[in-house]
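Thread: "does anyone have the structure for this chain?"

Original post by V.I.:
We have the sequence but no experimental structure in hand. Need at least a predicted one for the grant figures.
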Amino acid sequence: MLRRLALTAVVSLAALATAVPASTASGPVSSGSVSSGSTSSGPVASAVPTTGPFAAARPSLGPLPLPVPPLPGFLDGGEGKGTGEANEVLTRLTVSVENTGVAGADGTFELECGPTGGSHPRGQAACDRLAEAGATRAGRQELFRPTPEGTMCTMIHGGDATARIVGTWEGRAVDTTASRRDGCEIARWNSLVPVLPDVR
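Reply from O.Q.:
Generated one for you, tokens below.
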């Protein structure tokens, strides 16, 4: 209904813009052409000069084009498709966790951010962590980056927990694994909490 009313208003404005200049082009009515009780039929002086140096200044009137504006988003079904496609969720991850020894921590969970959704038990906190890391260049480069080969890591065993994270983070593809087999992997796991469960 709102969309129909908006289109009707646009068509009416276009018709008005065409009719008004056309009626004005015939020239203004002199004050002497209409008077109470007057029956004069003589020529009526025009208020617009037709000869002399000011004659060229008379504008040439004609129909004025009236562009049709796009419909506002609230009249376009509420989907905002009049100005572009709806924004897609840029973060969608599948988090699989095993052997943590923590009740409720093992399993496969879906995580979506912007807006927050999915089955992840700490969805909002996990999205906040991802947003925090994504706000810096170092965070974007390091968060899901595996430990480089040849890195010297302390021989500390942090448990048998393993995890895999697959999906898209802020439009970038992610496919990484994590464990707690040494100091480097423990630190990396902890940096991913609460996307991964806290098993410390």
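V.I.: this helps a lot. The longest strand covers residues 91-98.
O.Q.: and The mean pLDDT is 75.
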